[in-house]
Please model this.
Amino acid sequence: MPQANSVVVLDFETTGLSPNLGDRAIEIGAVKLVNGEVVDSFQQLMNPGFRVSSFIESYTGITNNMLRTAPSCDEVMASFSEFIAGENLIAHNASFDKRFLDAELDRISLGYTGEFACSLLVARRLIQNAPSHKLGELVRYKSIDNDGVFHRALADAQMTSKLWLSMIADLEQYGVKKPSFQFMQTISKTAKGKVDLLLTRSRA
Model:
């Protein structure tokens, strides 16, 4: 059974909130974890084929000038599909990133075989006392080492991977050793009030 600590953690920066409304990816960042160690990373700006708004420029720090010389979304996503081949996937607020991953890969008739788990949903259940479950807030709350850069894809993927591994370490304190990827998915779908019962039953 695939382990929770051998995954690809990814993050997209995009022109807006929904590919269904014509929004596109403008940056992908990802780190590959094997047994809890970062073994590879992927980072690339991509040109969506139109100008991005001044809001997105200021929010991400990715300017139209930077995107002008970037390769196309199609070119970048073809490379990224090879990077994630056969891997399970993690993202913070995974439904958002999955929408863009699916939409961009659909455009070039490519797919992937791995499944997604959401670090945001897992954090809401394992770190219930955090003031917020935004990535930056959780990183601060857990005192996770960071360089203060957020809303750039690789930096956010790196932070998400540290948060993910931190939550796996927390589970070991509950006696849940080497949780599987599927177990983390189960946590994400468990009612908050029933998480302790789930962990008690799952002790090694």
Remarks:
- The mean pLDDT is 96.
- The chain has nine helices and five strands.
